[in-house]
Amino acid sequence: MRLEERITDLKEDIIKSTQEIIRIKSVKAEPDGDMPFGKGVNDCLNYALSLCESFGFKTKNVDNYAGYGEIGEGSEMIGILVHLDVVPEGDNWTYPPYEAKIHDDKIYGRGTIDDKGPAISAIYAMKAIKDSGIPLNKRIRIIFGTDEESGWEGINYYLEREEVPTMAFTPDADFPAIHGEKGILMFDLVKKINRECRVTKIKGGNRPNMVPDYAEAHVKDLDLNLVYEYGKNNNIKIDAGKEGDTTIVKFYGVSAHGSLPESGDNAISKLMVFLDTLDMNDEVGQFINFYKDKIGMEYYGQSIGCGFEDKESGKLIFNVGVIDFSDDEIKVSVNVRYPVTYEKDAIYDGMKSVTNTYDIDIVETDYMAPIYMPKDHALIERLMKVYREETGDNREPITIGGGTYARSMENAVAFGPLFPGQVELAHQKDEYIGIDHLMKMTVIYTKALAELLK
């Protein structure tokens, strides 16, 4: 039986499994007994392992930090690196984020594209290979990470204890094959506040790698009419209300992945630009002015001293994801994706040339070095061969700002699931995967595995 025909036969099962795994809310939570990332993530891992077991794969749960399903024999191992955790769902979904409802041949839900839908696709690609009778002279192992969105503790736990694949791809980015990923910095901009100020609280965002869709500020002696007039004049959705002499101002935006801030609308930045119009001269007002002048609505870090770019991977990306001010400290959490030919010290040095003037500290919270693989690398060439044959698209391999599990080991790259021109909905409300898209990428992953088995 041809591989495409086998995938077609499995269509209803692929859809059903995708819906079932989406219905498990697997946002990282506090440890719960032997579940390091909470019950939801643990339930999702057990679901994936059970599905693999039902297909006759060899499986292992790695202490609830990770797991894998495996087929085949031999010393060489082809890895498929997926993750089962998802970012928080946010607000204002058209369809419930954990019901996996189908509308217009699209499955809606958190994780449909990032990364549960691709994980199910890869499991069924392995099943199709297993059922096809193709000689399995290498092993194929799908590795389930559980903490990709907030620290990689799960995949790192796996790598410290289990066998590392000979080669691998991760379906957690874009097609065609990705031969470079920008470096990632996460840090806090921290300003100590020593005096009582007119703004008493600012809060917004969920995580540094998400464009925030909500932010609020508590401001003393602020006329509500001024707030609404600003919103009307600038075509911005704002809510406001009074609590005694304090006005609570609420700004709304559009969530998006932190590597693509231009796809969203940053509620924190819009709020800070508004607050700067109040001309406050106290310590918080000075920080707000710094934010407006040196960050503002920019995506590329040019005003804060790190607007770098290279021909290999393009411009640096600068995303403010979280702000938290109460009591005596303002903390702004930032996610930066920097070009593959730069070192991280150049990024920090550029920013410090600006922030030192304002007595603002930069505190690093996470770092991933960039990765880069030549376009003529054997793994890239073989994945590109399958992609071109299946799509008729002869474009070249690409580089991205996103950070995938390809960084976690040697000889690994990202490959799909988004096709060129498709809207990036990871980390956004109304995330979905089209059923035709799900089936097409399953065919590509099946044929990619067949190619890598040769």
Automatic annotation (TrEMBL):
Superkingdom to which the source organism belongs: Bacteria
Record has Hydrolase as a keyword: yes
Gene Ontology molecular function: acetylornithine deacetylase activity; dipeptidase activity; metallopeptidase activity; zinc ion binding
CDD domains recorded: M20_PepV
One matching Pfam family: Peptidase_M20
InterPro entries cross-referenced by the UniProt entry: ArgE/DapE_CS, Bact_exopeptidase_dim_dom, M20A_pepV-rel, Peptidase_M20, Peptidase_M20_dimer, Peptidase_M20A
Positions of the Peptidase M20 dimerisation domain: 249-323
Keywords: Dipeptidase, Hydrolase, Metal-binding, Metalloprotease, Protease, Zinc
One Gene Ontology term from the biological process aspect of the record: L-arginine biosynthetic process
Cofactor field: Zn(2+)
Similarity comment: Belongs to the peptidase M20A family.
Annotated protein name in UniProt: Dipeptidase PepV
Taxonomic path: Bacteria, Bacillati, Bacillota, Clostridia, Peptostreptococcales
